[in-house]
Write a structure and sequence with these properties.
This protein starts with 9 loop residues before the first helix and ends in a 9-residue tail after the last helix. It is an all-alpha fold and about 425 residues long. It has helices spanning about 10-45, 50-60, 60-80, 80-100, 110-135, 145-175, 175-200, 220-240, 245-250, 255-275, 275-280, 290-310, 330-355, 365-390, 395-410. The longest helix has about 40 residues, at about 10-45.
């Protein structure tokens, strides 16, 4: 039963909104540390001499356990309540941060992968909890409000993740790797203690016990959208996660602070565009996105990495000869900005559509399955980003991105169309 349908009426509606705001505040605080930690790990271990593939492997368990967490976490959220999944996530992130504060000689690849696994579990428990909660605040006949709230939540989260990227680069330059981790762990621990006191126990808890076999969605629309989401995020991370920051640092000579600041500004702008997605896609004129919208925007996005790759072809004959790279920097910067804007609209469309398609009773089950596919896309993209860049070049990462986006567009053709409201 949604908050709006509860017998206590307005009082419970206000209470539900307060609870959702608490969940969102926790999600925002967590997002800052998540973005900062990713930038810290990429730049610090590149500085230690790790190869691009080696850096990608550090995130292997982060993404792999995100796949499992989203699948099982949706089931746990329906059975136990979203407050518990949120608090478990916050606590695990504090532990993950502190694990990485050991002396540098102890930071072996398996050890860092384990710490990143805890961080991946924590991140996806938080994301699933926050995204599932918003479904409870908008009735089925308020799809416009649902789209608007989803866009604002997703956009603000990604803007804060960008701030986290900047924070990670700045902290690494200012207080070093260990100092940055200690400060973030302390701040997040305070947020966690506040969350333990204030979050309501039955937030998002299903009336009937969710069965474990319900983990996998039986909805064709949810399955198709989840597959499209996998390729959408794989297409982003195949060149953005490892290949791009390492290329900017090693081949174009950018400092750690410059790389962190640029990627932070990109994420912040990406989040801002996500927040405005309802206006961009025609919400003001009464049009809501459907499967056709998802197809068109994914198709448009697929052109951008292809054009960047073609621009690099023939210009970048040898990445080690920086004298021959005068046009590479503006091409990458401009191309990434354009990619980010169009990708942001795609991401917001998907985030709205999954909540539109999801069941209200036990919403976290469908949302968890969907974000399981999202995590799988990030996992595939992250591994390919390090592997393709190490064996070939940035251009190969961009071409694979184009292929993934074309597949996302084709899958979107099977999504339902909605009437104009």
């Amino acid at each position: 039963m949604s908050v709006q349908d509860s017998p206590s009426g307005t009082a419970q509606l206000r209470s539900g909104r307060r609870q959702y705001l608490l969940v969102t505040a926790n999600y925002w605080g967590f997002t800052l540390t998540d973005g900062a930690l990713r930038m810290l790990v990429v730049l610090h271990f590149h500085q230690l001499g790790y190869s691009p593939l080696g850096i990608a492997l550090l995130f292997l368990f982060y993404e792999l356990f995100g796949v499992v967490t989203n699948l099982v976490g949706g089931w746990l959220g329906a059975r136990l309540g979203l407050n518990r999944t949120m608090n478990i996530g916050l606590g695990l992130q504090v532990v993950a941060l502190l694990l990485l504060t050991v002396p540098v000689e102890l930071l072996s690849v398996p050890y860092v992968m384990f710490a990143q696994a805890l961080s991946g579990i924590a991140k996806d428990l938080n994301k699933m909890s926050a995204k599932s909660s918003i479904k409870l605040l908008a009735a089925d006949d308020q799809q416009g409000r649902l789209y608007r709230w989803v866009a604002l939540l997703t956009g603000s989260k990604n803007a804060l993740k960008g701030v986290g990227f900047f924070l990670g680069g700045a902290l690494l330059a200012g207080v070093g790797f260990r100092g940055a981790l200690v400060w973030m762990a302390l701040a997040l621990a305070l947020l966690w203690l506040s969350s333990l006191r204030r979050l309501r126990q039955d937030l998002g808890k299903a009336n009937s016990k969710a069965r474990f076999r319900e983990l996998f969605s039986k909805s064709r629309a949810v399955n198709l959208l989840s597959a499209a989401r996998l390729f959408l995020f794989g297409a982003r991370d195949v060149w953005f996660v490892v290949a791009l920051p390492v290329f900017l640092s090693a081949n174009l000579g950018w400092s750690h602070a410059e790389v962190g600041s640029f990627l932070a500004l990109w994420i912040i702008g990406y989040g801002a565009v996500q927040s405005m997605a309802p206006l961009i896609t025609g919400k003001r004129s009464g049009r809501l996105p459907d499967g056709g919208s998802a197809f068109c925007w994914a198709g448009l996005l697929s052109v951008i990495p292809l054009l960047i790759a073609l621009g690099l072809d023939g210009e970048v004959l040898d990445y080690s000869l920086r004298a021959y790279l005068p046009g590479t920097e503006p091409l990458l910067v401009g191309g990434l900005l354009l990619f980010g804007a169009v990708f942001a609209v795609n991401s917001s469309l998907h985030s709205y559509l999954i909540l539109s398609y999801a069941r209200e009773e036990g919403v976290s089950l469908d949302v968890g399955f969907y974000y399981m596919a999202n995590a799988m896309g990030r996992l595939v993209g992250t591994l390919l980003s390090g592997w393709l860049f190490q064996l070939y070049d940035l251009q190969s990462c961009l071409l694979v991105s184009t292929l993934f986006l074309a597949l996302a567009a084709l899958l979107s053709l099977g999504l339902p169309r909605h009437r104009t409201v």
